[in-house]
Amino acid sequence: MSANSKIEWTDATWNPVRGCTKVSPGCKHCYAETFAERFRGVKGHPFEFGFDLRLVPEKLGDPIRWSTPRKIFVNSMSDLFHEDVSDEFIENVCRVMLAANWHTYQILTKRADRMSRLLKTKLKKAASASHIWWGVSVENQKHGLPRIELLRKARPAVAFLSIEPLLEDLGQFRLEGIHWVIVGGESGNGARPIEASWVRSIRAQCEDQRVPFFFKQWGGVRKSTTGRELDGKTYDEFPDAAANPVPSSAARAHLLDSLAVA
After folding, report:
1. Which 8-state DSSP code applies to residue 73?
2. SS3 of 258, please?
């Protein structure tokens, strides 16, 4: 768990799953894979096995131990809804999120079909919790726009879109049932270009439909030089976050025991 994430729209990361596999063009230059593969073979390192998918049950209890409320990006180095993650393990992750409700959780997937199905069935309680935000990645029209429809059909209490890397003009699309939109360009070596007109179009649709808009970055090979301003303004809008009390240390210890997590 990283208490000080460099990702602009979250405070911390929590990775009870590590590793993933590519499913669409947005995965081409995966930052998580690039990072993880640097440590393949380094004995004892969290990514000793590179980007191979692994469950990490010993990380399940981390949010309960963390007493200071945070926005937590769940599985920044994986996808909770990967086909090799069992329903049972996903349910265990959700049990922790429901119990440690003083945090706000941000779950993001490209496997929207599985997430939508589970949010309507086994994960109904987690879907209805306002401190758990469910999102899909949207990189283009072909792969991204169908994910929005699948998310909308699941009707979670808070639904969001991570439109990053934005690879083309998305055109006009419905934001009904969507509560937050993040937009960003690709960064790092080989970063594919982003057009300002594509970003402005999404911003205008968010404004028209009253959806909070967060512009993460222009990206590029050196994203620090291109910055985050859009037409002279930084957009840092968020949905309203739930405010739940933090239990005592004794109560949190009891939670750990009752959930039987490490």
Report:
1. E
2. helix
